Structure formats: C-alpha cells, structure tokens
C-alpha cells in the first residue's frame, strides 16, 4: 500500500471532524453539518471542475456525515468519478463510498460496474484488489451477476499476483454465500483445487476456505482436494516452526491454515487409499504429539493457536471414527484438558468428549474420566461448563456406571441452576429407565427426582413411571410402599401426589395388609393432600378414591361421605363436580361385580419408545450440534438401547420418527379395529392410535358396560381430563392417546363408514345447499354446470372447537361409473381449524350417460379418533341438461320422432307434496329442461324440452307431466333418444313431486 | 405524584438528582438501583436518542418522564403513577421561574454553583412529590443565598416568616413600606398563526400574560379591569345607551380561557367577574389568557415560489404591516426555508438585511424597524444541485418573528385600582405604568 503522503492529509476533513466532536448539542451538530453540506453542494455544482484531491476530500466528508446517521442524496457521481482516478487514495475513497452508500438499484450501478471492470482488467494488483474488495463488500446479486464469471478466471489465471488470488478466492466465497446459484461451477473447479499446492500460504489459506464451502455443496467435484489437503497438512505439521516465516504465529506453524485444512477434511469420509490414510494418521499423531511437548512460549496466543489446531484434529478424528488408537489418544489428551486451568479449555474438552463417548472405540476410554467429570459438575464455576459436564455424563453412561452417574446427577440436582434443571431431570429419568436392572431402584430414583426437583419434572416423566409400574408386576408392591412412605412427608410435591394417587389407587391393596398402611390410613393420607392440589390432581385423586371403593369395601362409607360433601358435589369446577356426582352414583347403585369390572386394574401398556427420550431429543434442537453428528449419535443411542433393553418380545414403535418400524401384529389389530375395506394411507399416528383404543377399550368393561357416558378408567389414564389437546404429537405415548380418547367415549365405537345420502334427492332440482351435517362437520355445496362439464365447490365446516387433523376427502366412483364420469379432485388442506371452513373444488366431466352417483369419502381425526364417512355427491344426469326452447309444432314433430317404445318411459305416481303449479314449474326448470308454455292443449299440463350433453353424445329429451288434482296423482312421460336416459330421468324426476 | 426530579446537562450527565418516592419498584430489588436505572433510561432514551425525541412526555418501562429544556439543560420529572401531566409541567415551569429568580440564567455553570441552593429549594417546593408553595417572593424570605447570615436574623422576623408562610396570605408579608407607591403592569402577548399561501387563516390564537411588578405599602387591595366582553356586556345590560354599547362593543374581547395567580379571589371572579387581589410584593404574573377571535394580525406575508427547471428556484416574499401607521414594529425577522439541495443563493431586498444561512437551510431576512401600513419585499434566486433521489421538497412554511407595541388580541386595561384602608394613601397616590408588548409565537405562512 503506498504510504500516505503529507499532501493527502485532508486538513479540511480533520477540521470538520473536530468541529463535530466539539459540538455541545445535537442541534449544533446538525447546524454544522447543514453548513458543510451546503458548502459541498456549492463545490459540486456543475460549472467548475474539481481536482482529484478536493473531490476525494468532499466525498470523504459526505461519507463521514452519512456514517453519523444523516441522509446523503448527492455526491454519488463524484464518488464514481474517483474510481477512474489513478491515485490509490482517491480510488480507495471512491470504493469506500460506493460500498457503504450505493444501493443496488441505483442508476449509477452501470457506471460503477464499468469502473470495477476496468480495474479488474488492469494489471495493477492494488487496483484489482480494491475492486475485488468492493465486490465482496457489496456482495449484492447484481454484483454477483456482473462478475461471477470473471472472478474464477482471475483466480485460476497463471499470471495473477498472489495477493490478488487471495482476494479473488475470498470474494468468490462471499458471492457463493450470498447468491450460490449465480456462481457457476465449471472447468475452473479442478484448477481451484490445485491452489492448495500454491507456493504462497496466504493463497492456500483463502483457497481452503473457498474449497471447504464449495465441497459442502458438491462434495464429488472436490474429492481430489483430500489428497492435496493431506499433503499440505503433513508439510505444515512436519515443518519446523521457523520454516514458514510470515505464517508462523507464536511458534505455531500456520495455525489458521491447519485448522481450515482439517475442516476441509471433515467434509469427507476417511480416505480409501491406504498410503494417504497412513499419512493423515501420521499427521494427526504428530499434532497429538505436539500437544504433549512443553510449550515454546508462555504467551497465551501460543497455546491458543496450538489448541485450536489440536481441537480441530480431534474433531476430525471423531468425524472419521475409524482409528481406535487415535480416538483413545484424543480422549486421553482431552482428559488432560479436563483439569486445565483455562475454563474455555475445560469446556471444549467436555464438549468434544461428549461426541467421543458415542464412538464405540473410545467409549471405554471416556469412562475412565468419570471422576473428573463428576468433580467438574460439582466444582465448576461456570454454568455452561457444568452443562457440558452433564451432557458428557449422560453420554458416557452405560450399564456399568449408571447407578453412580444417576446418583451423582441426583445429588447435583439439589444445587443445580434452574436453567439446566429440567434437562438434568429428563436425563436422569431416561438413564434410570434405560439402565434399570432392578426396577425398585428405578422407582426410588424417580421418586427422589420428584422430591428434589418436583417443579422441573414434566408430565412425561411421571407418566413413564406409572407405565413401567403397571407393566411390571414385580415392582408394584414395592412402588406402592415407597410412594406411601414418600407421601408421609409433611410437604410433598404435587407430582408426587399424582404418582401416589395413581399407584395407591391401583395397587393400594398390595400394602393394605400392614396395619400401618391400612386402607383407611391410605385414604386419609391421600385426602390430606387433596386440598393443596390443583384441579387436575384433585380429579385424579377422585378417580383414585373410586378405585379405593372397589379395592376396599370397608372404606366405602368414608369415601362416599367425602364425595357427598358440598365441596365436591357443588364444586365450581365442572370436571370435579361431574366426577364426584358420577362416582358417588356409581358407588351407590352398582353392585360389587359391576364395580369390579368397571374399576378393574389397568391393563398393561403396549411397550414403546419412552416419551421422555422424545422430549429430550426435542429439547436438544437441531442447533446444538451439526445435523450429521446428531443423527449419528441418535443411531448410536438407538443401537445402545436395543442392546440394553431386556430383549423382550414387546414390539416397539419408533414414535413419530420411525413409522416404518411398526410390527405386523399392530397392523392386524388396527385392521380389526377398523373394518374398512378401502386401503387408506397408513400414517404412523393412526397406527399408534388404533391399537391402543382396541386394547384399552376391549379389556376394561368400559365400552361394554351400561354406562358409556362414564369413563373412569379411561380417564384415570388421562388424569388431567382436559379437552383433547391438539398438540398430540408432543406426547407420543399411550397416555396422550387415551387422554384424547377420554372425552369422546362415543367415538370408541368403530368409525361410522356408512354412506350418507339424506339430502341427496334435494339436490336433483337445485345446485346449492347443505349436503350433510352432523355434530362435527357440515358440508355445503355450490355447483355450476355447463354442457358436459361441471364444477362443485365443497365447503367443509368444522363445527367443533378443536382442530381436525389429517383431513382428507376424495371422490370415489364405483367401477361402473368410472368410464362414464370423470371427477377431478383438488387435494384439500390436511387440517381444519376450529370453527373454520375449508373449500375443495371438484371438476366433473360427463363422458356418457350414467346412473349411480359418486361418493365423497371424508376422513379426519377429531380428538384423537378417526372419523370416516361417505357422502353421496349429488351429481346426476340431469345436471348436464341444456334447456331447449321450441314451438308447439316442433315439439310435437320431435315427440313423434321419438315414438319407439323403448324410448318412452311413462310413470304414474301419487303426489308426495301439495300440488302447487308454481312449485312444479320451478322444479321442472330446476331439473334442467326448458318449460314450454302453450304447447300442450291442456294448460294444466307441463311440457319441457332439453338436451343432455355428454362428451360423446348429446341426448335430446322431451317430457310431459300431467297432474290430476282430484286423484292427487301425476303422470310423467319422458321421451329421449336413449332408453337408459329416459329411465334414469324418470326415476329422478318422479321423486320430486 | 412526582417520584423524582433530575437535572441533566447537554451531555446527559446528572447535575441534580432528587428522589421523593421509591414506589418505583426499588424495594423489591435487593439493591436500590431504580434511581440509577431511571437516570440512565432517560439519558439513553431521550437525551441520546437516535431520533430526536419531540414528545415532552416519554414512557419507558412503565415509568413516565416529563421533561422541559432550558438552553442546554434538561429538567426531567419522573413518576410511576398516573399523574396530571399538566400539573407536572406547570411545576417544572415554576421551578425554572424560581431558579431564574434566584440566579438569573439557567446554565450548567449556574446550576453547579448553586447546587446546595437548588436542593434546598427542591426540599421546599416539593414534598413527597406533591408541589408546595413555589412563589419565589415567598421563598426568598426564608431560603437565602447569604448562608450563615440568615441565622443572625432576629426571632421576630423568623416568626413572621412562619406565620406568613403558613397563614392565609402566604404570598405577602406584613409591614411593607415604600416611600413611593408604584405599580408596573405589562400585557405580554404572543400571536400564533398558520396561513395558507392564498392568505386564508388556517389557525390563529393569542396567548397572553399580565405581568405585574408592585411596590405598594401595607396590605393593599387591588382591582383590575379590562375590556372583557362579558363584563362590558353586563354593564351595558345595566342601562348603558345603545350608542355607548356600539362604541365599547367593538373594543371588548372574548377570552377563551384564563388562569390567575393564587392571590386573585376566584370566588369574586366567578360571581362578579371582577379581578380583585392582594398583590405579592415584587414581580409576579397576575393572569394568563388565550383568545382566538378577532385577532389583529400585525403582519401579512405573501410568498411567491416558482420552480425554474430542476436546478433553479425563484422566491419572492412581500410582507405588509397591518397596524396603525404611528406604531413601530421591531426586531422583524423572516425565515424563508430553502430546499435541502441548495447549492447557491442570490438575494435582493429593499429593506433590512438578508442572508442565506446554510446551517439552518434558510434565508434569514432581518429588518430592525418597520412602521405600520407599509410593505417591503425580498426576492431570491436559489440554485439547486440535481440529486439522484426523487424526493420532493416538502416546502416548509415561511416563519416570522417580530415585536409590536400593542396587544394583538385587542386587550385593553380599563382600570387598576388600589385600596389601602389602614395606611393613608389612596388610589390617586399610586404611580401606575402600563405597557403592551405583542410578540410573534409561531407565525407561519405556507408557500
């Protein structure tokens, strides 16, 4: 860069800036700026030519004013003029102004682009650099469009200076980031890769950045870079620190380049070629060795640079995950860092170890550091480091150390920061379940968890305990005893009350033998917590009470007394009130047998993925780790679980994530539960849904019993009893399902699949109206027909206050109809919000005359249950009528022409409605024919004519309707050119009168 | 009620900080950080705001800041309650008056030099956030700048102060004696106008003040009369001749609203519409009023702006004085805004001096004196620099400043009578001076 000579000092600018700095108030500043702007305007006035120096000075002032936050609306032209100057400083100011101030839609953009082009074409490296920097700084689409082709050329040209190459590579990188579609890949790519061999390390560094980005986009094109990168890396690693001169940073050879090369290598799997692989391993080993050497300098920059390279190398080792020795060495190295003075290093070490722990080669090695990590958890001052320690403990946990880790995490939880508590709770819950050999331990752990951090224990956690307790006979007694003891504490968390209520309600009988926990004591204990709890918990407790009545007849009177009290029977909360009333009635009128069947013990839950795990996964979010890493970890965990779960034959569904894994037996169940003969799209949700409904509804006498409006046992499952939550996907376990099934007991019956055609006949003579309506859904129609084409707008109205999910509606034509009618359906949205309306458009083409009507099949999930019905679509032959006006003479002539016996259909029928002339006229016109006046000699008779359009043919049609008011009868005569049409029309029309 | 009061300099540094209430949530936090927070919040959000804050009331985090600015000094009253904003501003203005009465100019230097005094004053005029007596005359009796000297005062005087301040007539002490009983009365008005280019009045009003300075002995009772329309009409109803009413009806004015100094007996005003009072000693503002009808507009501005192409603008402005030829207007200043891309200006004017002030983006035309019923004109040629943005110039209005020796509202003082029963002087012995000054407020004409 040429030194700034004294003459370039721009004193005026300095004076102006110091004036501004000395301003006492904003007003004074604005005044000064206004004055300066007026001065510059008078200088820029067209009539006098300014020399380069003053132009530069004024443009500089304008730039300064702009950066102070004032609008600048002139001077752009002068700045563009500066671009063509040959002086470096002037050009520089011009470029600066343009990259700061010129917006892309300016008129000047062409001039600017021209200036840049000239500079790019010049052989002067400083000018080329300035223009490249400007392109990169602006980085707009327009810039990319204009120069995306030139820059690669400059980059790979043999005669380009090194400094320009650097700028070009970085400029290209920037353009690639802002508008990747505009940067063409081409023959230059291969040559870019060879820049890795460049003499100049600066060029290599910037080229590596570029190649890394490009390689992420299209890895195949840059595969060759791997070998070059390894070669380059090994040269750097093995070089003595002084070899690289300018690129040695505090005795570390080219740290940035090394880091970038290692990053680049992380885009690819380990090289296939053995030699190459050996060389890379050698490099990595050298880096690991270097970490062991005593530091060459005490300066923090030295160790920072060294560690940066080291951590990147470890990241690569983890990424490759193929060299056990390297993995173990990396792990040991990280182990050293765990005790390092530097907090950042400890953090990084914990973080990297977390990923190491998931590799099968280094898992054991990581485990050796358990003491240190636990210590870190306890003593670290920085919460983010402690968080990492928790993550690492979670990752390194397996069967051998689960008890220790869980115990440590639990004890830490008591003092943990609130920000990470919930995550720890989830992790403890997952680990306790995953590695539980002994379920009494599991129950203890979770109860401890609730005691220590009750507020952070989410629903999923305690749902899961209950699932496990119910599914395992061996722990039920123990669980009942433990919760009973836990409940003795004067203050216990509401979640504990919930668990306690549920478990005692189910298994209280197992501990009732002991006089210290006799039924009455149990009940009194639970009831002592009743008034301190929220409504959902109270509801659950009420259900537990009714279960008590079943389990222990001796406390029946006490419990009935409680239920009868005003605070229950007249509770302001509708849910509680209803439960109290229903349970009280149930307990008084039902015989013990009925009680026993209604309140039977809950059936075991189908085994499935823990909902806690799902929640933990969600909490992690995609941002925490790179996507690939995450997925790999998941796979790892999956495998781990598969191994660890005690191999039982329970079929497991992969939750929302893996619908394909559902086992055949589940499928069978679902088909049995839903006797539908139509193939339906099998969604994972419906699969999880139906088997549970079947398994839950069948064994519990609920649906079989006389009181279908009661749903105690289903409700016990879903203790909140809240209206079905639409966030059903959040809880992917049985609880949520039953929760949603709860309030809609009627829907437990197989879905209604009957085809409704109630309103079908109403649509024969009209086109718009309500086709179908039940408690949930209203279907309205609006249709238009022209010749053989029709369009129907179907409106689906959601009448409920919940969303319909997985909504679909399709038109089903019977086989017979398929050749005669073409129905095209536009797919509808899959959800209908509460109270909202959805429109679907059907396009219909009539190919031939037809008799049956198509059926609209509707399917959706409401509150967790699948609704399914069919509605006959009112598409009839007469809809394709075109009315024809004709004179009496014509009419009779044609009437005679259609005289063949099969062409005429006559029907005599009794009037169903009062015989009103006007109504009849309207109906005939609505039917589609033209009503012909004065054709029939008898004025009371009605005569009509029309043509039915189908794609293939047109069918003329004449009709005559003769009412007989005395006998309340009609005679309908139809003559058409086709017998089937006559018959069909007469059937349709005769029903209308 | 006012929670606290801060005074800042132009940099946003706090010069005076007085907190009256900590209701603003500082009790709930372990350390009383509220005060600092409020101080900082105002500085960050108002004084150093990116966009200039134009509203005098700013709400930050449920806390209201009311501010007034005097030269480079910001006075901010802070409250978390829903207070009467007018009351707070009235108080702030009073506070400025009091400070001016004590140390003439409100400047950073003066505030720094008198900070003890200011705290003393704040203790006196605000109690737990409720405004108290802010009469500078009364305050001066017991808050003095002499410091120790005041303690030497005899006990009598001290008890007198106590009885005065707590008594019925808190604004005047007893036993005042003057050799010459004198009264000065100023009617100060500012006239505000917005006029369309065609000369149509879009809005106009006069806000006026009656300021008095009294040097009267004893406890005199004063009565002030002016040509208020209601009073005059009432007198006419009492049997004035029709001829009389036509004459005086012309001169009476309709007052839209008015406020009085606390010494005025409001009950008497309400019942008889007469203004009677026992005056404080020295300077005070007797009343404030506002009129909107029949305003005499002292000047008429006739603008003529012509755009010649994209790079030139021709402006011609004529001003006409519209009052008695015998009167002289002073300090006339016309501001003609110029476009933001002005690159040069040529001005020709018949009278006075005109100059293009780039820092204000305006041509400023000054005339020292101008008699009534005259007219004068200026013409200017403005060169413009073509800009690349198509933003059109907003054409701000031409504004004007002046001072005229009459009341544009038409207010006339009819009488000012002084009665003192105990001491032996009568209304005739009092020397009275009356002066009318009309100034421009926001006096603008669109162009």
UniProtKB/TrEMBL annotation, chain A:
<dbReference type="GO" id="GO:0006886">
    <property type="term" value="P:intracellular protein transport"/>
</dbReference>
<dbReference type="InterPro" id="IPR012295">
    <property type="entry name" value="TBP_dom_sf"/>
</dbReference>
<feature type="compositionally biased region" description="Basic and acidic residues">
    <location>
        <begin position="629"/>
        <end position="654"/>
    </location>
</feature>
<feature type="domain" description="Clathrin adaptor alpha/beta/gamma-adaptin appendage Ig-like subdomain">
    <location>
        <begin position="761"/>
        <end position="874"/>
    </location>
</feature>
<dbReference type="Pfam" id="PF02883">
    <property type="entry name" value="Alpha_adaptinC2"/>
</dbReference>
<keyword id="KW-0653">Protein transport</keyword>
<feature type="region of interest" description="Disordered">
    <location>
        <begin position="615"/>
        <end position="662"/>
    </location>
</feature>
<feature type="binding site">
    <location>
        <position position="53"/>
    </location>
    <ligand>
        <name>a 1,2-diacyl-sn-glycero-3-phospho-(1D-myo-inositol-3,4,5-trisphosphate)</name>
    </ligand>
</feature>
<dbReference type="InterPro" id="IPR050840">
    <property type="entry name" value="Adaptor_Complx_Large_Subunit"/>
</dbReference>
<dbReference type="InterPro" id="IPR002553">
    <property type="entry name" value="Clathrin/coatomer_adapt-like_N"/>
</dbReference>
<comment type="similarity">
    <text>Belongs to the adaptor complexes large subunit family.</text>
</comment>
<keyword id="KW-0168">Coated pit</keyword>
<dbReference type="GO" id="GO:0072583">
    <property type="term" value="P:clathrin-dependent endocytosis"/>
</dbReference>
<dbReference type="InterPro" id="IPR011989">
    <property type="entry name" value="ARM-like"/>
</dbReference>
<keyword id="KW-0254">Endocytosis</keyword>
<feature type="binding site">
    <location>
        <begin position="11"/>
        <end position="12"/>
    </location>
    <ligand>
        <name>a 1,2-diacyl-sn-glycero-3-phospho-(1D-myo-inositol-3,4,5-trisphosphate)</name>
    </ligand>
</feature>
<dbReference type="InterPro" id="IPR013041">
    <property type="entry name" value="Clathrin_app_Ig-like_sf"/>
</dbReference>
<dbReference type="InterPro" id="IPR009028">
    <property type="entry name" value="Coatomer/calthrin_app_sub_C"/>
</dbReference>
<dbReference type="InterPro" id="IPR003164">
    <property type="entry name" value="Clathrin_a-adaptin_app_sub_C"/>
</dbReference>
<dbReference type="Pfam" id="PF02296">
    <property type="entry name" value="Alpha_adaptin_C"/>
</dbReference>
<feature type="binding site">
    <location>
        <position position="43"/>
    </location>
    <ligand>
        <name>a 1,2-diacyl-sn-glycero-3-phospho-(1D-myo-inositol-3,4,5-trisphosphate)</name>
    </ligand>
</feature>
<dbReference type="GO" id="GO:0035615">
    <property type="term" value="F:clathrin adaptor activity"/>
</dbReference>
From TrEMBL, chain B:
<dbReference type="GO" id="GO:0005905">
    <property type="term" value="C:clathrin-coated pit"/>
</dbReference>
<dbReference type="InterPro" id="IPR043512">
    <property type="entry name" value="Mu2_C"/>
</dbReference>
<keyword id="KW-1003">Cell membrane</keyword>
<dbReference type="GO" id="GO:0030131">
    <property type="term" value="C:clathrin adaptor complex"/>
</dbReference>
<dbReference type="InterPro" id="IPR043532">
    <property type="entry name" value="AP2_Mu_N"/>
</dbReference>
<dbReference type="InterPro" id="IPR028565">
    <property type="entry name" value="MHD"/>
</dbReference>
<dbReference type="GO" id="GO:0006886">
    <property type="term" value="P:intracellular protein transport"/>
</dbReference>
<feature type="binding site">
    <location>
        <position position="366"/>
    </location>
    <ligand>
        <name>a 1,2-diacyl-sn-glycero-3-phospho-(1D-myo-inositol-3,4,5-trisphosphate)</name>
    </ligand>
</feature>
<comment type="similarity">
    <text>Belongs to the adaptor complexes medium subunit family.</text>
</comment>
<protein>
    <submittedName>
        <fullName>Adaptor related protein complex 2 subunit mu 1b</fullName>
    </submittedName>
</protein>
<keyword id="KW-0446">Lipid-binding</keyword>
<dbReference type="GO" id="GO:0005886">
    <property type="term" value="C:plasma membrane"/>
</dbReference>
<dbReference type="GO" id="GO:0016055">
    <property type="term" value="P:Wnt signaling pathway"/>
</dbReference>
<dbReference type="InterPro" id="IPR001392">
    <property type="entry name" value="Clathrin_mu"/>
</dbReference>
<dbReference type="InterPro" id="IPR018240">
    <property type="entry name" value="Clathrin_mu_CS"/>
</dbReference>
<keyword id="KW-0254">Endocytosis</keyword>
<dbReference type="InterPro" id="IPR011012">
    <property type="entry name" value="Longin-like_dom_sf"/>
</dbReference>
<dbReference type="GO" id="GO:0008289">
    <property type="term" value="F:lipid binding"/>
</dbReference>
<feature type="binding site">
    <location>
        <position position="357"/>
    </location>
    <ligand>
        <name>a 1,2-diacyl-sn-glycero-3-phospho-(1D-myo-inositol-3,4,5-trisphosphate)</name>
    </ligand>
</feature>
<keyword id="KW-0472">Membrane</keyword>
<keyword id="KW-0653">Protein transport</keyword>
<feature type="binding site">
    <location>
        <position position="353"/>
    </location>
    <ligand>
        <name>a 1,2-diacyl-sn-glycero-3-phospho-(1D-myo-inositol-3,4,5-trisphosphate)</name>
    </ligand>
</feature>
